[in-house]
Design a protein that fits this description.
By secondary structure, the chain is of the alpha+beta class. The chain has four helices and 14 strands. The relative contact order is 0.11.
């Protein structure tokens, strides 16, 4: 497991964008709090912008989660984009704002991020601004969220254990693909990889999960079927995957141009086909055709009856 980096919860200082082009039309307090302009040890300070107050609260909570992740986990990437546009229609200014924020940690899947809520913030301050030229309005929203070193160190330890377990799962699935021996094992591996794909936050492991999942899904293309007569009236149908035995459980169909009383029974991951050759003629080609579906493919084989 790669060592996790401990990032001190540094306060990024934000100063409201109040300039000659913007007019303050509303604010949550008459005076901006002192923590906007000074370092505050043991806190996460978030500043976001949004077209509405409700959306600003939501973005602030997401940003707190992203900053908390960055302080706990290594190789975490967070990204956000904010795109605003203004359109003048019949003299009126129409503004739109689309925002996307992705915390690559997939916060909902990490136990220690489930409790993040602005109700726990020490202080919140917001300002409503209006562009003097266009009339477009936006909110700047500031949050002071407690995140002390003791809590940080505890979360690092918890995350280390959690992440190590996920990494071990991925390693086991990487090794297991060489010996996977049944459709159920393939399905279980794909399900496990889907779960890991919902967790892994770094690009390297996320890409590895995606690639490994595709390889598991492709295994069906390599399943080979063989038929061996173990007696004059018995055919053993078995399967291989990349050189090792593969156990099948799907229904197998067996038909013949001459054999009768055909019975198919599962036998240790293979199939034992028994039949009667009373109606088969020595001067004709006598055969049994078998069909079975394996991982979305239809496997077929024709096996010549040589002994009557």
């Amino acid at each position: 497991m790669k060592r996790l980096m401990t990032i001190l919860v540094a306060v990024v200082l934000f100063v409201p964008a109040m300039n000659a082009e913007m007019k303050v039309v509303e604010r949550s307090a008459k005076k901006a709090p002192a923590w906007l302009g000074s370092a505050t040890e043991g806190y996460i300070v978030s500043m976001v912008e949004a077209p509405t107050l409700a959306e600003a609260r939501q973005r602030a909570e997401q940003d707190v989660a992203a900053q908390m992740v960055l302080s706990v986990a290594r190789n975490v990437s967070t990204g956000s984009s904010n795109v605003s546009s203004e359109t003048v229609h019949n003299g009126d200014v129409e503004s739109s704002d689309s925002y996307s924020s992705t915390t690559a940690i997939r916060g909902a899947n990490l136990p220690f991020l489930k409790g993040i809520s602005l109700s726990k913030a020490d202080d919140v301050y917001w300002v409503k601004l209006r562009d003097k030229k266009s009339g477009a309005e936006r909110y700047e929203y500031y949050v002071k969220y407690p995140f002390f070193r003791v809590e940080q160190q505890q979360l690092i330890a918890e995350f280390d254990d959690y992440d190590s377990g996920k990494a071990a799962e991925l390693s086991a699935l990487e090794e297991g693909i060489a010996t996977v021996d049944s459709p159920d094992a393939i399905a279980d591996a794909v399900a496990a990889l889907d779960a890991l794909g919902a967790y892994f936050f770094d690009d390297v492991r996320a890409a590895k999960v995606k690639s490994l999942r595709a390889r598991y899904k492709d295994l069906g293309k390599s399943i080979a079927m063989t038929g061996t007569f173990t007696g004059p009236k018995t055919l053993l149908v078995s399967f291989e995957l990349n050189g090792h035995a593969f156990r099948m459980s799907a229904p197998l169909k067996a038909v013949s141009n001459c054999a009768s009383d055909i019975q198919v029974r599962q036998h240790d991951g293979a199939y034992r086909v028994t039949f009667s050759t009373d109606d088969c003629l020595e001067d004709e080609e006598n055969y049994i055709d078998v069909t079975v579906r394996a991982e979305g493919r239809k496997l077929t084989g024709r096996y010549i009856i040589k002994e009557l």
